[in-house]
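Practice problem 4.
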């Protein structure tokens, strides 16, 4: 397959191909735009000191980030929303400048719970709408106040819902003006097709947020989503922590890779910056999570160099088809997405 280094520009409808810190958005199929780099805001709620998310988001906006990726299940949307509102209040940005992605958690898949879940996010953020709202996982859990419901034996309690019915409830949220664009996360091709082939589909998913980095380049899913005009948003674009409780440690640390290190040296950049630039040049949106001020700045500093076609091909060749984030604790769920090839 010929390298589609700038393939996403076909979708950008003739916009300037030059990516800059101020202008690096990809056009979505519904006419809205999404910045190619965003700040991920997940932090273990038990370990993250109060105020950390607030400071990180505030700094990110000052640095130039305009895309913030969050979720109700991160338990920090109140801090994220406060940071966004404070940067609007001090004149750094307008609400229209910011692209916020929120997520529908597994316990809210029942159609009657979808809008209340989104409204809870809006109330927590204290914003009138979100720019993108996505189904975080195709795996429904038992509805209720517990985000991770388990039985007396510690087994997760699943729930049978129809992804198409969940999607219809999301469409109603868009029609009501609570969200600008709709998307999904961790969906495989079969699950995407369920939505795309739904009778009476009003609003198609504009994006699919999945793990994506040089060791897991997602070539088949990327190709399929390009054909359907669905943007891939890459989480864990720098690999992940080495926490054995949820990370597949068979995959070696991405940022120590020899090829990536040598390319980084050539451009006087870090391996993290090379990983991010690689995906951005493929039209894959990246949402590196960091609460470290230096890294927040460093991760955004990827617009003053570009990788050659040969370098892009070499980095694509690093693909090991191994996930860091396997979520094996839910692998017995009927809609667990990672049993399929893509």
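Answer key:
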């Amino acid at each position: 397959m010929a390298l589609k280094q700038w393939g996403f520009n076909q979708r950008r409808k003739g916009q300037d191909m030059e990516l800059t810190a101020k202008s690096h958005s990809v056009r979505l199929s519904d006419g809205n735009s999404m910045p190619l780099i965003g700040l991920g805001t997940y932090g273990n709620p038990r370990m993250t000191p109060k105020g950390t998310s607030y400071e990180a988001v505030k700094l990110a906006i000052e640095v130039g980030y305009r895309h913030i990726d969050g979720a109700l299940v991160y338990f920090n949307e109140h801090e994220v929303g406060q940071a966004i509102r404070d940067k609007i209040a001090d004149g750094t940005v307008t609400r229209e400048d910011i692209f916020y992605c929120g997520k529908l958690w597994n316990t809210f898949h029942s159609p009657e719970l979808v809008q209340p879940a989104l409204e809870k996010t809006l109330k927590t953020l204290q914003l009138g709408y979100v720019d993108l709202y996505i189904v975080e996982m195709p795996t429904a859990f038992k509805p209720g106040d517990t985000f991770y419901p388990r039985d007396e034996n510690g087994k997760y309690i699943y729930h049978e819902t129809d992804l198409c019915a969940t999607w219809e409830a999301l469409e109603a949220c868009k029609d009501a003006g609570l969200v600008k664009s709709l998307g999904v996360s961790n969906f495989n091709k079969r699950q995407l097709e369920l939505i795309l082939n739904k009778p009476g589909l009003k609003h198609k998913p504009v994006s699919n947020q999945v793990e994506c980095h040089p060791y897991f380049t997602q070539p088949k899913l990327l190709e399929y989503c390009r054909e359907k005009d669905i943007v891939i948003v890459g989480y864990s674009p720098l690999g992940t922590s080495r926490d054995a409780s949820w990370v597949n440690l068979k995959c070696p640390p991405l940022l120590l890779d020899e090829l990536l290190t040598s390319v980084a040296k050539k451009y006087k950049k870090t391996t993290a910056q090379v990983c991010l630039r690689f995906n951005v040049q493929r039209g894959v949106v990246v949402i590196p999570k960091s609460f470290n001020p230096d890294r927040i700045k460093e991760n955004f500093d990827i617009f003053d160099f570009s990788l050659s076609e040969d370098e892009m091909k070499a980095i694509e060749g690093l693909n090991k088809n191994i996930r860091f984030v396997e979520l094996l604790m839910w692998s017995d769920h009927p809609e667990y997405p990672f049993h399929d090839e893509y």
